[in-house]
Specification:
Blueprint (H helix, E strand, L loop, with lengths): L14 H4 L25 H8 L70 H14 L12 H10 L5 H14 L3 H6 L2 H8 L5 H19 L7 H5 L6 H11 L9 H9 L8 H8 L8 H14 L27
Helix pairs in contact: 3-13, 4-10, 7-8, 11-13
């Protein structure tokens, strides 16, 4: 059987197949690269320049482009400058100065002023001590006590607290626990409830219990009489030890609290900030037999006249002998 090819009998194409192929979608940045400024079409300004007479005709070779200037100029190193000419004699010439950059100033940390206790004027110190002695002849500690143990406990409670508040708390405390053994054996919670109003009651209760336990274990329930033995007790520092020694045993000692530290600096007796260094600076200034009373004088004067924020300098008897160090405003 022979097959005959007939074009009329071929399958007709569908309308879709006869459509022209659509051009590919041109994505941004995917087409031909854009011409650089000045490389593509001539601007109207450039066309006007080429049309001006005097320019080279069309088809002539253009002039070579001018060399572009460097954008970053390299500085030449500066040479040393001499004040004298080159022909000056050697004896007159001076060595050329070297032009070097100055180093940046270093930031120094604040350092307190050096202690001025040893170099204080003895006449001025004697005048200050005399005036204070006349102002407060009966100066003593404001903490009420009947024995050294009560004074020791009251001094521990007076930290960050007023003496009036301590005097309100101690009578009930000493009525329940009159000796060191009972204070060492009292439960922590019970002691905290009694001394809560003095502030920092948890730390103070722990310090009292541990201190009394050391007094019972090491000294038979009696408060020691020396600085070394007192400071060896837990919770006792030099300030507390000086209070006990000076007021209970009559041993001279300088008590440095916030008032003593402030007034010793304002009066120009020392420039130290640390309590131990203030104590060491005041020792050669004040007579040893007046150490305890001198501390009481400064404490009373700091509470009544030379207060912290605005001291009452207008009514202060010490004003003629006071440099008022660090005082910005006064009454």
């Amino acid at each position: 059987m022979t097959l005959v090819y007939s074009p009329s009998r071929m399958a007709r194409k569908s309308p879709r197949s006869r459509r022209k192929p659509e051009p590919p979608v041109r994505m941004p940045g995917g087409s031909r690269p854009r011409a650089m400024p000045g490389r593509g079409r001539k601007s109207a300004r450039a066309a006007a320049r080429s049309a001006k007479p005097g320019h080279s005709p069309k088809g002539a070779h253009p002039a070579p482009p001018r060399p572009r200037r460097a954008t970053l100029a390299v500085r030449k190193p500066r040479r040393a400058v001499s004040r004298h000419p080159a022909g000056a004699p050697a004896a007159v010439r001076r060595p050329a100065r070297r032009l070097t950059a100055k180093p940046a100033p270093r930031r120094t940390r604040f350092t307190p002023r050096p202690a001025q206790g040893a170099g204080a004027d003895p006449a001025r110190v004697s005048a200050l001590v005399g005036i204070l002695e006349r102002l407060y002849p009966q100066a003593t500690t404001a903490l009420r006590h009947e024995n050294p143990l009560q004074l020791l406990v009251a001094t521990i409670l007076s930290a960050q607290c007023t003496d009036e508040r301590v005097n309100m708390v101690t009578p009930a405390l000493f009525a329940k626990h009159p000796d060191a053994a009972s204070l060492a054996a009292v439960p922590q919670a019970d002691l905290e409830a009694v001394i809560r109003s003095t502030g920092f009651f948890r730390n103070k209760a722990r310090a009292i219990r541990e201190c009394c336990a050391d007094v019972v274990a090491k000294h038979g329930g009696q408060v020691p009489r020396t600085m070394e033995e007192l400071t060896a007790l837990r919770g006792v520092g030099r300030k507390t030890a000086n209070v006990v020694l000076g007021n209970a045993y009559g041993v001279p000692g300088l008590v440095v609290d916030t008032h003593v530290a402030r007034l010793s600096q304002r009066l120009g007796l020392t420039g130290e900030r640390d309590p131990v260094r203030i104590e060491q600076a005041l020792m050669p200034v004040v007579a040893r037999e007046k150490w305890t009373r001198f501390s009481h004088w400064l404490i009373l004067h700091g509470r009544q006249v030379c207060i912290a924020r605005k001291p009452r300098c207008s009514i202060c008897p010490l004003l003629p002998h006071c440099p008022r160090a660090g005082v910005a405003a006064s009454q």
